[in-house]
Amino acid sequence: MNIMDFSVKKLAADAGTFLSRAVQFTEEKLGQAEKTELDAHLENLLSKAECTKIWTEKIMKQTEVLLQPNPNARIEEFVYEKLDRKAPSRVNNPELLGQYMIDAGTEFGPGTAYGNALIKCGETQKRIGTADRELIQTSALNFLTPLRNFIEGDYKTIAKERKLLQNKRLDLDAAKTRLKKAKAAETRASSEQELRITQSEFDRQAEITRLLLEGISSTHAHHLRCLNDFVEAQMTYYAQCYQYMLDLQKQLGSFPSNYLCNNNQTSVTPVPAASSNVIVPSAMASTSGLVMASPSNLHDLKECSGSRKARVLYDYDAANSSELSLLADEVITVFSVVGMDSDWLMGERGNQKGKVPITYLELLN
User: Fold this and answer.
1) Rg of the chain, C-alpha, whole Å
2) Which residues contact 178 (CB under 8 A, 6 or more apart)?
3) Which of 356, 333, 359 shows the shortest CA–CA distance to 345?
4) What is the DSSP string of 63-110?
5) What share of the chain is helix, strand, coil (3-state, %, to 5)?
6) pTM confidence score
7) Helices first, then strands: H and E counts in the chain
8) Cα–chain center distance at 79
9) H or E element at residue 365
């Protein structure tokens, strides 16, 4: 027998098998043929695998949307991934906003209140952008990749074996039908032999499929660990963002009130209180539901002629010779001078003396 004859016979056999399965499937749908039911345990495993596949796809796709809201960017990354090429690095939204703020602040002048604030905000936005990039990379590696590997790897294998099981079942039921229709003894003997073979093949394929499906529990355990990694990555990201914004709020809140003036309208920036002794400008009142009050120890200091020790909260560069430059965490002597602006005190360090902004100080007992 040459190769051509073998190929023709194989094609004919495959066509016959396909036709037999099609007939059996159609008769089952029409209620004209009996169908071998899978055992309840195997059916439950199949249902669990299908449910896992559906929800894994939904969670994976929505996580991608969360990490990268831009659909065009997601498509581009998908194309580069399929081409096995690295996607070009792009500036994300916080980084772009931060750069705009820095450029604007530089244009307005770093020595101006607004320019300085823009630069500080821009630097913080760029740090948030870096944290956002790290979140995406960590989540993609530790969470999305395992989910995608299941969909494109393990589940495809399960689906393939499930399809084979379906075909073996159709072959088995077709053999049962032919045995029922067999009249002659010779035909009946041949049909019984065919039934034994198809039953054996079906049982073997059912066992293979069952073993694969029982691995779904291990998949759930693995995905649980990946979920914990994703949560930790988010915790790190949000903690970083909170700390960045807290630091920025302290920097902006430490500006003297005469720097927080624009177009002759005073703008109030909340100042986080590190302790009950943190000095807050008495000019700051409630705004948009935020109530800020001056501590009683500041009032006492303004009313008496004595002096107190104070710890410096932030570095401060003197704007002129009447002011005193400060270094964070140093302790100086402060006292009130009659007629001085309510947002300033007189500071003294050794032989050096000058005005200091009260928002940079914390009175010590």
Assistant:
1) 38
2) 191, 194
3) 356
4) HHHHH---HHHHHHHHHHHHTT-PPPP---HHHHHHHHHHHHHHHH-T
5) 65, 10, 25
6) 0.61
7) 10, 7
8) 21
9) none
DSSP H/E element including 331: strand 331-335
Roughly what angle, to the nearest 10 degrees, separates helices 155-181 and 185-213? 160
Strands 352-357 and 361-363 turn out to be unpaired
pLDDT tens-place values along the chain, 365 residues long: 556 555 655 666 666 677 777 877 787 776 767 788 899 999 999 999 999 999 999 999 999 999 888 777 767 666 766 667 776 778 899 999 999 999 999 999 988 889 999 999 999 999 999 999 999 999 999 999 999 999 999 999 999 999 999 999 999 998 888 888 888 888 889 889 999 999 999 999 999 999 999 999 999 999 999 999 999 999 999 999 999 999 999 888 765 544 444 444 434 444 444 444 444 444 333 333 333 334 445 555 555 557 889 999 888 888 898 999 999 889 999 998 888 888 889 999 989 999 999 888 888 86
